[in-house]
Insulinase family protein (Bizionia argentinensis JUB59), 439 residues
Amino acid sequence: MKKGLLTFSACLLALIASNAQEVKFEEFDLDNGLHVILHQDNTAPVVSTSVMYDVGGKDGDRSRTGFAHFFEHLLFEGSENIGRGEFMKIIPANGGTFNANTMQDRTYYYEVFPSNKLELGLWLESERMLHPVIDQVGVDTQNEVVKEEKRQSLDNRPYGNLLNSIGENLFTLHPYNGSLIGEMEHLDAATLEEFMAFFNKYYVPNNAVLVIAGDIDVAKTKSLVKDYFGAVKKGPAVVRDFPMEEPITETIKATTYDKNIQTPAIIAAYRAPGMATKDARILDMISTYLSGGKSSVLYKKLVDNQKQALTVQAINLAQVDYNIFALFALPLGDVPLQTILSEMDEEIVNLQNELISERDYQKLQNQFENQFVNANASIAGIAESLASYYLLYGDVNLINKEIEIYRSITREDIQNVAKKYLNTNQRVEIEYLPKKDDQ
């Protein structure tokens, strides 16, 4: 009976996923190279205007790290037509919300307004792109903001430098080895001319995608986009030639110390194929199988049954050039770190030697179907997905079709990918330890 219910549930989710969530969109390019995606949804009187720039922590001079994240802040300073500090006052005063975020591969800005404020959203983003004020006052102001963010998010936060530790040890050549927030001495040493050069190189229309989603009239919106963004000058094409990493063939051991922790952690990190590959999706499934919730393999084993860990995770961090697949655990009491690592490795070996059960496989499929059904539940979420699929994956229609990739994954695929990428001689093992006064 239970098997029958599982099968019925899977069929129902597949039916909902295939019929209920198609996101329709329209694409076009301006003469200056700006790619534009429009999604019309008139069910609620809201509209999202967003721009994703093809620039992130991996870009720029390695003696000037952190510029992309710095610009996430700096481009809220103002423009020739928006006074200093007014950017963040105009939006809430008109019933809107806003935010921005930076990753290694991209920077994203967005506003959500009542739909009668569409033109305001377009004006704000065009001002950011066309003529922002980049001056010494703004640079000095945001330098202090970034320093405080670094203190709160990294330097004084337990396990705050964990991801940086993984990047530093997993990548020796590729700029993924650098901190997203950057080194403060790099920002302190940077000149105004260097900031201007970074803006002129990366924040150009042909290096960005504009997404407008929500309660819009498509024809009118196209006309407004041309009015507000058509005058932005096209920039030189951004050319990247990052060095690729040599495969890891022997286990790399490293140690990181953190003054903010009392409980050590163990990390095993692997270089994996970039986010647009099928193997990356299979590793998504593996990470969910291992630690996706309290009924997952590692949680039940190490936290519930053996009571060896406070928490345990398997993550597959999506990036364009290389994903990061990592196992992470905090021991309970005096359990040795290597004991926990051995217990996690045992489950990886099981994946490599045996097919997961049909029940676990169907559970995974149900989980990913459910994620697909619940994804893009808001206009803002749809806008970001459209931008990401275009800029990072190269296929906007994945917003409707990516679930088909997950459906095509077999138990044999899971076993083969575990064999191919998750071997002990292909990883970095990091002991993340409390820092003592003499260290």
